[in-house]
Amino acid sequence: MKLISDVLIVGTGIAGLFTALNLSENLNITIVTKSTLTDSNSYLAQGGISTAYDVNDIEDFVKDTLHAGNFKNNPSIVYMVAKESRDVIDTLINFEVKFDSLNGQLLYTKEGGHSKNRILHHKDYTGKHVIDTLITKLKSRKNIKILKNSTLVDLIVKENKCLGGTFIKNNKLIDIYSKYTVLATGGIGGLFKNSTNARILTGDALSISLRYGIKLKDIEYIQFHPTALYNKTSERMFLISESLRGEGAILKNIYGQRFVNELLPRDKVANKIWNELKEKNCKFVYLDISHLDKNYIRNRFPLIYNTCLEYGIDITKDPIPVRPAQHYYMGGIEVDEFSRTSMDNLFAVGEVSCTGLHGNNRLASNSLLEGLVFGKRCSDYINKNISSQKIEVLKVDKNIDEIILENKNLFRNTLRKHRSDINDELI
Ligand SMILES: Cc1cc2nc3c(=O)[nH]c(=O)nc-3n(C[C@H](O)[C@H](O)[C@H](O)COP(=O)(O)OP(=O)(O)OC[C@H]3O[C@@H](n4cnc5c(N)ncnc54)[C@H](O)[C@@H]3O)c2cc1C
C-alpha cells in the first residue's frame, strides 16, 4: 500500500504529539505508532516536567543540568532549552494540561540534582495526564491521520534524502511518502532485562539509522534509574519516582542504615546502590517515606501508593525495596538545534535523538522538556520550509525479512561493542 503525506511522524509520545500539534493545520500529517496511542514512555512519566522557574532561574537551571550531565553536555543547547522552557509549558497549559496548583499558583517540586523547586507535575502521573490531553487535541485536528499498530522497518531513501518510511501493519507493507519525516520513536529499554521502559521500545530507528550511515552520537551514554521497585516477577520494572526523594524519602541498606545523600544526581545515587548491593550481597535496598504524613503521601503519590499496595507494600508504613534499572538513553541520533539529522529531510525528536542537552547523565524531568522544546523547534522549521519541498515516489525492491532481522540485532550489537560492562543487562 502507498500513502502520501506532507509530514510523516513516527511515534506518539510527547515528542511526536507535540511536533504534530505545532505543525500548521494546512499541512496533511500522518502520525504512526508501533502499538496503541498510549504505549510509550511518555505515558509512564511520573515526576513531572522541569522548567526555569522564572528568567532569573535560567542560569541556575543551566548549571544544574551541566552539573548532572558531568559537563559532557552542549552548553549552548542547555541554555537554549532552559530559555525556551517557559514557552512550551505555556503552550501545554493552553492545550488544557492542568499542572497541580494551589489557589491559582502552580506548585513546583524538586528532584535529585535540582538546586530549587522547578518541576511542574500532575500528581504522580504527569505523563498520563499530559498525553491524554494531547491525544484529545490531536483527535480534534482534521489534518492529522493516525495509524496504530504499524512498525517502522525502513526509511525510503534517495541519495541521503529521506522520502518517507516503510511500515508493517498486520503483516502487510505500507510505504508512506512525505516531504519531511520525523522520528520520535523514543528509547531502548526493551533491549534490557531490567528496565522501567515500555517493552516495545527496542531502538528500531537506531538500527535503521546505522544501516543508512545516519550519524549517531554518545552511543555509550545509558542512564540507570536508582530506584525501580524490586520484584522478581514483573516484566517492566515499576519506577519509584525521584520526587519521593525530593520530598524527603530516605535510602537505607538492608540493615536500616542510610548510605547516600538521596538528592545527588541519578548516576551517583545509582552507583552507591550498586556498591551497596555488591558489598552486602543483596538484591535490593530500601526507600523509606513512611515518616511523612500518611494523607499527604496518599494524595501526592497516588499511583506509587496504589501500585506498591498491589505488591503488598503500604508505603505509608513500609520501606520500599528498590534497585537500579535501565531508564533512559542520552545517546541517539545526532541532531542540530532544529532536530535535523545528518540525512536530508529527516528529523529526530525526543529520546531517540541526541541533542547534547543531557551530557552523560540526564537531570531528572529534563526529558519531557527536551521533547517539547525540540518538537516545537522542529515543527517551526518544517512550517517555514515545507513550501519548497516536493513528494518524490521511488520504486525500491526490498528484502523485508532480511531488513527486520538486521534491525533486531544491529543496534544491540553496536551497544555491546561500546558498553561491554553492561553485557549481562542486555537481552
Ligand atoms: C517510568 C518512567 C518515568 C519517567 N518519568 C519522567 C518524568 O517524570 N519526567 C521526564 O522528563 N521524563 C521522565 N521519563 C522519561 C520520559 O518519559 C521519556 O524520555 C520521554 O517520554 C520520551 O518521549 P518520546 O516521545 O521521545 O518517546 P516515547 O514517549 O517513548 O514514545 C515513543 C513512540 O515511538 C513509537 N515507536 C517506537 N518504535 C517504533 C517503530 N519502529 N515504528 C513505529 N512507532 C515506533 C512508540 O510506539 C511510541 O509511540 C520517564 C520514563 C519512564 C520509563
From TrEMBL:
Domain of life: Bacteria
Domain FAD-dependent oxidoreductase 2 FAD-binding: start-end pairs: 6-368
Catalytic activity: L-aspartate + O2 = iminosuccinate + H2O2
GO biological process: one example: 'de novo' NAD+ biosynthetic process from L-aspartate
Annotated EC: 1.4.3.16
Pathway per the UniProt entry: Cofactor biosynthesis; NAD(+) biosynthesis; iminoaspartate from L-aspartate (oxidase route): step 1/1
Presence of keyword Transferase: no
Cofactor(s) the protein requires to work: FAD
Enzyme class: oxidoreductase
Alphabetized Pfam families for the sequence: FAD_binding_2
SUPFAM superfamilies with a match to the protein in the record: FAD/NAD(P)-binding domain (SSF51905), Succinate dehydrogenase/fumarate reductase flavoprotein, catalytic domain (SSF56425)
Gene Ontology molecular function, alphabetical: L-aspartate oxidase activity; steroid dehydrogenase activity, acting on the CH-CH group of donors
NCBIfam families in the cross-refs: PRK06175.1 (NF004820)
Descriptive protein name: L-aspartate oxidase
Species this chain originates from: Thermobrachium celere DSM 8682
Taxonomic classification: Bacteria, Bacillati, Bacillota, Clostridia, Eubacteriales
